TrEMBL record:
GO terms for biological process: leucyl-tRNA aminoacylation; mitochondrial translation. The lineage of its organism: Eukaryota, Metazoa, Chordata, Craniata, Vertebrata. It comes from Gopherus agassizii (Agassiz's desert tortoise). This is leucine--tRNA ligase. GO terms for cellular component: mitochondrion. Pfam families: Anticodon_1, tRNA-synt_1, tRNA-synt_1_2. It comes from the Eukaryota. GO terms for molecular function: aminoacyl-tRNA deacylase activity; ATP binding; leucine-tRNA ligase activity. Residues 116-202, 387-545, 582-622 form the Aminoacyl-tRNA synthetase class Ia domain.
Length: 847
C-alpha cells in the first residue's frame, strides 16, 4: 500500500521497533462513527457491482493501515509529511491568483495522523532555521558570489542537481542561464569522505549506494584557504583552492584560476587587475598573490590557459615537484619551488622541506596536515574534485526565510534563537519574477541588529526546499515539540528509519542532503545514529505522456494541444510537439486526476491495479484501460462471491459438522489448508523481505481460485475453508482495506462459526497477521518451486529441497522440465533471480 500511496505523491516512511518499557505509541483506532454497509443496512448485498463499491468507499475512510506490522510485539510510525514550500506551490498559487499560503492550505491542510508535519508552518520551519544557525555556528554556512544556474522562466537559482543533462530546468524545462549572484552555501563537502565511507554500512541501499558513491567521487584531495593580496596589500578577500596532494603543499609554486573565475567577472576588488593581466589562451602570471593560511607561504595567482580543470573545480594549487604539468608552467613563468618528496632506498616516500611535517611519510603527513588545517578552520576536509557545496539561496517568497541579519557594523549576524521563527510577511500581490519579493516589504526587511542594536536589514533570500526535507525524519519522532527540533531520547529510540520508500531521482539530492544533516546532528550530539535510513525500497514512477514545444521545451497543458490529427500540435501555432513519457508532475501538466479514476473504479481497485501492474522498482506507463484493471475488479468480485457463498451456506437449516465430510472432501480440505499455509508463508515474505506486492497479489488470487473450486459440502462443514477465507481477507486488507473491511463484516455475521481463534468482533484491520501453522512446518523433502517469467507466474516445478538452494541446479532442472521446454526453450534469458527461502525463481528474458 505504501508504494501505491508514494506513487500518488504521498510521502511515507516506516519506523518500527520492538516495544519495551521505554515508550509505547498509541495505536490509531477506527472512529466509532464509521460504519459498514452491513451494519448500516442489516443485510448482505450478494453482488459486488459498481454501486456496492461506491458504498464501500462511502462508509470507510480511504486511509491505509499498517496492518501487516500491527502485532503485539511490533509498533510502527507511518508518518505523513507535506513538503509544502518551494517553486511548484508558489507557481501554482500565482497561476490561480492566490496567496501561496492559501493555496497550500486548500491543498493539504487536513489531518492524517498524529505523526504529521507540514514544512510551511512556522512550527516546523522554526526548527529548520534553528538547524541553519547551528550549521552557521559550526562554520558550515557561508555566502559568496558565485556563477549560478538561473532559470529565466521561474526567475530563480537552481542547484546543480536541478539541472538536467540537456542544461534545462527540472521544473520549467527552460534552458538554464549562467550568471553571478551573491549566494548562501552549506559546506556539504566537509562531510564528503565520511559520507562516502559510511555507505559501506548501508547494505540495503541497492542501486542507490552506487549512484551516491559516484556522485561524491574519490575523496583524495582537499581545499585549503588562502588570503589574497595585490601589490603586497591585503584585500580582505579569501580563496579556497583544491589540491590532490595536500601532503605536498610546501612545494606549491602558484595557484591556478580559470578564465571564467568569479574573481575576473563578479563583484571582486581584484576584477580590474586580473582582467588587465589576462591574455586568452596563455598561462598569465598576475600581480595578485595568495597567502596559505596553514603554512603562511605566499604564491602568485596564475590565470590558466585552460578553459576547464578536472571535475568541477575552478581553482587549484600548482605543485611542480609532484605534477609535471605544474612544473612546466612554473618553468615557463620563472617561478621557484622546492622539492618536498624524498624516496628512500626501500622505496618509502618521506617529506623534506616541509616544516614540522619533515620526515613524515606521505600518508602520515596527509593525515597530520589535513587535521591541522581542520583544527585551524582553513580547510583540510577530504573531498573529490567533482563535488561542490550545496547552494541553498532562492530568490522567491514561498520558502523558509534565512535567519540572518546584515549589519554595517557587526557584519553577518544570525538571528538569536529566542527570536525564532523568522516568519514570512504577508504579501498580498506578487508575480514570482525578478528579485526576491521579500525586498518589497521594508517593514519586514528593516530591523535592528541583535548585537549593537543599530539599523540593519534581514536576509531576503529563502532556503531551497530541500533544506526543509533534509531533517523531517527526525521531526517525525517528536512532531509537536515546541522547545526543540526533537527529543534526543525519542530520536535515538526510533531512528534510523527501517524502511524508506522513494524513487531513484532522490539518490543525489534528497537522500544526499538527508544523510548530510544526519551526520551533522550526530556530530552535534543531537542523535546517536549517523545514518538516517537503514533500508530503501526504490519504487518506480507512474509516467504519463507529456507534450512540449520543440523550440522552447515548454510543457503544454492538455487544453493547449490539438489531438485530432495524426500528430499532436499546438492549438495556436500548429507547431508539432515532442511527445514523451515522463514522471507525473504539475509543472509538466501530465498529472491524472485521481478523483476521476476513483469515481470510475473505486480506490481499492486503483491501488490493486498499481500494485499488480509491476514490481515496485519498475516504472508504469499509465493506462488504466489495460487488462489489469478488469482483472483486479474480477478478483474483488470473486472475493465478494466467496463470502456470499459462506453466508448463504451457514444460513441454511443444516448445522456445520466437519465429521460429515467424506474421505474425498477431507482430502480437499487438507489441500486448502496446505495452500493457505503456503500462501501465508509466501505473502509474508513478500511484505517483509522482497516487497514484491505484485507477486503477493498473484498468490492471493491463486488462493481465491482454490477456494472458488470448493464444493458446497466443504463450504458448509469445513473449518479449513472458513479459516482460509478469513486469512485471505486479512492478507488483502493492507492493499485493499475498504473491501477487506466490508468482507470481514460479512464473515463476522456468519452463523455457526467453526473457527474461534479470530477476533470476529474487531475489524479486519485489527486482526493479527496470519502465521504458518506449526504442523505445516514439518515440510517434506520435495518442494514446489514457483516459476516467474518477466515477473509473471507461469507455473511450478517439483524438486528436492536441497536442490532448491542452488541457483545453477534450479536453473538447469527447470530448463529441462515440461514447463521450461514450453516457456523458455529458444528464448534468450537475460538473468534469473532465485529466492530459496520462498521457493521462487524469476527469469528475465531478452525481449
Amino acid at each position: 500500500m505504501q508504494t501505491a500511496w508514494q506513487r500518488f505523491g504521498v510521502c511515507s516512511s516506516c519506523l518500527k521497533r520492538q516495544l519495551n518499557d521505554f515508550i509505547k505509541w498509541q495505536k490509531g483506532l477506527i472512529p466509532g462513527w464509521i460504519r459498514s454497509i452491513y451494519s448500516e443496512t442489516g443485510k448482505w448485498e450478494g453482488n459486488y457491482g459498481l454501486e456496492t463499491r461506491k458504498k464501500v468507499e462511502k462508509w470507510w475512510l480511504p486511509r491505509m493501515k499498517e496492518q501487516f506490522c500491527k502485532t503485539s510485539e511490533t509498533d510502527v510510525i507511518n508518518p505523513m509529511g507535506w513538503d509544502a514550500f518551494g517553486l511548484p506551490a508558489e507557481n501554482a498559487a500565482i497561476e490561480h491568483g492566490l496567496h501561496p499560503a492559501n493555496w497550500t492550505q486548500r491543498m493539504v491542510f487536513f489531518s492524517f495522523s498524529l505523526q504529521e508535519i507540514t514544512t510551511c508552518l512556522p512550527e516546523y520551519y522554526k526548527w529548520t532555521q534553528y538547524l541553519f544557525i547551528k550549521l552557521f555556528e559550526a562554520g558550515l554556512v557561508y555566502q559568496k558570489e558565485a556563477m549560478v544556474n538561473w532559470d529565466p522562466v521561474d526567475q530563480t537559482v537552481l542547484a546543480n542537481e536541478q539541472v538536467d543533462e540537456d542544461g534545462c530546468s527540472w521544473r520549467s524545462g527552460a534552458k538554464v542561464e549562467q550568471k553571478y549572484l551573491r549566494q548562501w552555501f552549506i559546506k556539504t563537502t566537509v562531510y564528503a569522505k565520511a559520507m562516502l565511507d559510511s555507505l559501506s554500512d548501508l547494505p540495503e541501499w541497492y542501486g542507490i549506494k552506487e549512484m551516491q558513491a559516484n556522485w561524491i567521487g574519490d575523496c583524495v584531495g582537499c581545499y585549503l584557504d588562502f588570503m589574497l593580496k595585490v601589490n603586497g596589500k591585503e584585500t580582505g578577500e579569501k580563496l579556497a583552492a583544491y589540491t590532490y596532494t595536500p601532503e605536498a603543499i610546501y612545494g606549491a609554486s602558484h595557484l591556478y584560476v580559470l578564465p571564467d573565475h568569479r574573481l575576473l567577472h563578479a563583484n571582486s576588488s581584484l576584477k580590474e587587475v586580473l582582467q588587465s593581466e589576462f591574455i586568452p589562451g596563455k598561462d598569465c602570471l598576475t600581480s595578485v598573490t595568495a597567502v596559505n593560511l596553514l603554512t603562511n607561504q605566499e604564491v602568485p595567482i596564475v590565470i590558466s590557459a585552460k578553459s576547464a580543470f578536472e571535475g568541477y573545480i575552478d581553482t587549484k594549487i600548482g605543485i611542480p615537484s609532484i605534477n609535471p604539468e605544474d612544473a612546466a608552467v612554473a618553468q615557463n613563468l620563472g617561478l621557484s619551488f622546492s622539492e618536498i618528496i624524498e624516496t628512500l632506498p626501500d622505496g618509502l616516500e618521506t617529506l623534506v622541506n616541509s616544516g614540522e611535517f619533515t620526515g613524515m611519510t606521505r600518508q602520515e603527513a596527509l593525515k597530520a596536515l589535513t587535521q591541522q588545517a581542520k583544527n585551524k578552520g582553513v580547510g583540510g576536509d577530504l573531498t573529490s574534485d567533482k563535488l561542490r557545496d550545496w547552494l541553498i539561496s532562492r530568490q522567491r517568497y514561498w520558502g523558509t526565510p534565512i535567519p540572518i541579519i546584515h549589519c554595517q557594523t557587526c557584519g553577518t549576524v544570525p538571528v538569536p534563537y529566542e527570536d525564532l521563527p523568522v516568519k514570512l510577511p504577508n504579501i498580498t500581490t506578487f508575480t514570482g519574477k525578478g528579485a526576491s519579493p521579500l525586498e518589497t516589504v521594508p517593514e519586514w526587511m528593516n530591523c535592528s541588529c541583535p548585537r549593537c542594536k543599530g539599523t540593519a536589514k534581514r536576509e531576503t533570500d529563502t532556503m531551497d526546499t530541500f533544506v526543509d526535507s533534509s531533517w523531517y525524519y527526525l521531526r517525525y519522532t517528536d512532531p509537536h515539540n515546541s522547545d526543540r527540533p526533537f527529543n534526543k531520547a525519542l530520536a535515538d529510540y526510533w531512528m534510523p528509519v527501517d524502511l524508506y520508500i522513494g524513487g531513484k531521482e532522490h539518490a543525489v539530492m534528497h537522500l544526499y542532503y538527508a544523510r548530510f544533516l544526519s551526520h551533522f546532528c550526530y556530530d552535534q550530539k543531537m542523535t546517536k545514529h549517523k545514518e538516517p535510513f537503514y533500508k530503501l525500497l526504490v519504487q518506480g514512477l507512474i509516467k504519463s505522456q507529456t507534450y512540449k514545444l520543440t523550440t522552447t521545451s515548454q510543457y503544454l497543458k492538455r487544453e493547449e494541444i490539438d489531438l485530432t490529427g495524426i500528430e499532436p500540435v499546438h492549438i495556436k501555432t500548429k507547431e508539432k510537439l515532442q511527445v514523451t513519457w515522463e514522471k507525473m508532475s504539475k509543472s509538466k501538466h501530465n498529472g491524472i486526476d485521481p478523483e476521476e479514476l476513483v469515481e470510475q473504479y473505486g480506490i481499492d481497485t486503483m491501488r490493486l491495479y498499481i500494485l499488480f501492474a509491476a514490481p515496485p522498482e519498475q516504472d508504469i506507463l499509465w493506462d488504466a484501460k489495460t487488462d489489469a484493471v478488469p482483472g483486479v475488479r474480477r478478483w474483488q468480485s470473486r472475493l465478494w462471491s466467496l463470502v456470499t457463498k459462506l453466508i448463504e451456506a451457514r444460513t441454511s437449516s443444516t448445522v456445520p459438522n466437519p465429521q460429515l465430510l467424506n474421505k474425498k472432501e477431507k482430502a480437499e480440505a487438507k489441500k486448502i489448508w496446505e495452500q493457505k499455509n503456503l500462501v501465508v508463508s509466501e505473502v509474508t515474505s513478500y511484505f517483509t523481505k522482497d516487497y514484491l506486492f505484485n507477486a503477493a497479489i498473484s498468490r492471493l488470487m491463486g488462493l481465491t481460485n482454490v477456494l472458488s473450486q470448493a464444493s458446497q459440502p466443504l463450504i458448509l462443514h469445513s473449518a479449513e475453508f472458513e479459516d482460509a477465507l478469513a486469512t485471505l481477507c486479512i492478507m488483502v486488507a493492507p492493499m485493499a482495506p475498504h473491501i477487506a473491511s466490508e468482507l470481514w463484516k460479512g464473515l463476522a455475521h456468519v452463523q455457526n462459526k467453526l473457527c474461534t481463534y479470530h477476533k470476529w468482533d474487531d475489524d479486519v484491520l485489527h486482526q493479527s497477521w496470519p502465521k504458518v501453522d506449526p504442523e505445516y512446518l514439518q515440510q517434506p523433502d520435495i518442494i514446489e518451486m514457483s516459476v516467474l517469467i518477466n515477473n509473471k507466474a507461469c507455473g511450478k516445478v517439483s524438486m528436492p529441497r536441497q536442490v532448491a538452494q542452488n541457483a545453477e541446479e534450479v536453473h538447469e532442472l527447470i530448463l529441462q522440465s515440461e514447463l521450461g521446454i514450453k516457456h523458455l526453450q529458444g528464448r534468450p534469458i537475460k538473468k534469473a533471480f532465485l529466492s530459496p527461502r520462498t521457493a521462487l525463481i524469476n527469469f528475465l528474458l531478452q525481449e
